[in-house]
Design goal:
This protein is α/β, with parallel strands linked by helices. About 40% of the residues lie in helices and about 20% in strands. The strands form three sheets. It has a six-stranded mixed β-sheet with strand order 5-4-3-6-7-10, sandwiched between helices. A three-stranded antiparallel β-sheet has the order 1-2-11. α3 (about 65-85) runs antiparallel to α10 and α6 packs parallel to α7 (about 215-225).
Amino acid sequence: MSAAAVAAPVALSFAEPWLLLGLLLVPLALWWYLIDQGRRRAQVSAFAAPAVAASAIRDRPGWRRHAPIACYALALALLGVALAKPERTVAVPSEQATVVLVTDRSGSMEARDVAPNRLDAARQAVSRFLDRLPRQVRAAAVAFNQRAEVIATPTVDRQELRDAFATLTPAGGTATGDALAAALRLVRPRGTESGPEAPPAAVVLLTDGASVRGRDPVDVAREARRQRVPVYTVALGTQQGTIRVRRPGGQGTEVRRVPPDPASLRRIAAVARGEAFTAADAPRLDRVYEELGSRVGRQDERREMTAGVAGAALLFVLAGGALSLAFFGRLP
């Protein structure tokens, strides 16, 4: 299975980034501290010669002299960061999100290179996908061969969706573009908001072959991008997949190869700003849907970290004071 990692790194940003200029106080404070230390050494040298000072002052503080100051410097740096109001972006379940599962049921889905066959493997994986989807996220389903059919409108009833998939049988051709268009109409009905404030939505497309009927799926993917609906694609099957079909004229049957078309699905996902997966067998298909179940139906949310960073600064201030009292019996 080739797939990018689902878990994206946490993004860090600042509500008031210009206040990070306050961090310049840290090197200035350290510069002042070094000058002060040099002045004190000069005063000691003026009071007594180095040889005499070495015998008179037996217990030199060494590194302990600088430990409290290091804590205060870290505290000052953290306070500078806190002033800029740091924020982290995390993915959280969206109560208004809708995910549409678009599943191929064309004749090629009868191929048995994925046990028990491609359609049954997809059906089982979809069921596990629904288990992973956050409960408050609505899901819908579109099945397609040479025509697209909405088999379940957006709902939080997972059993209704499983029942809808249970009725599917493989037959006919492949009209991927029409199926994607039907999915878009479910999440972005005509006349509804499709800008940044629109409820989050995603489409998960599982198919095993190239589109041969209806609309160009890449054109529909461009429409999905404009409407801010990412399309995740899953190419199912192996290059060795075959089905048995009737010969033209009805004289017996013949074996026909039905390899998947991952290149077309990668193009659709790239245009729609989603992600493309390949699943050559049932276990891999399960893992793809488990990953997608933990990913779609979520939206990015900014959470302020100011209090935590300021709290860490306070801890360093307290640590500096505690070290100063422990080493020297006084606060600097």
